[in-house]
Amino acid sequence: MPAMRKRFDRERRTMAALIRIYCRDWHGGGEGLCAVCADLQRYTAERMAHCVLRPEKPTCATCAVRCFAPPQQAQMWAVLRYAGPRLLRQHPLLFLWHSFDTRYAPAR
Fold first, then answer.
1. Separation of alpha carbons 23 and 48, rounded Å
2. How far apart are CA 42 and CA 45, in angstroms?
């Protein structure tokens, strides 16, 4: 599997983990996601899959293109503000890979 594909899959898993953390703590989601968070996760996966910068896509954190619509962008910022700091404790490998990818991924 090419390195860019691996990085893209890691970023997709990281975004899903962040949304799960947020949903569990804010919406009382048990095993699954609430309807709002499930919609946000589907939207995020769709936007990432159709990224105009692929295959040399930088991480979303360092990307100059903002591909989310304003309502979903606001939702995602809330998720990132809350779940980002908690990712290290709950998913340390995803956190480390995301930190590495953010630092060493191609920038646009």
1. 20
2. 5
Q: Can you state the angle between helices 3-27 and 35-49, rounded to 10 degrees?
A: 160
Phi, psi of 79 (to 5 degrees): -60, -45
Question: Could you give the CA distance from residue 20 to residue 14 in angstroms, rounded to a whole number?
Answer: 10
* Per-residue model confidence as pLDDT tens digits over 43-65: 999 988 887 776 666 666 667 77
Q: Which helix (H) or strand (E) holds 85?
A: helix 70-90
Spatial separation of the C-alpha atoms in residues 16 and 31, rounded to whole Å: 13
pLDDT over 90 (residue 40):
yes
Give the rounded percent of residues in the chain with a pLDDT score beyond 70. 79
The token pair at 79 is: 């998720």
Lookup: tokens for 65: 């293109």
For the chain, the domains span 3-104
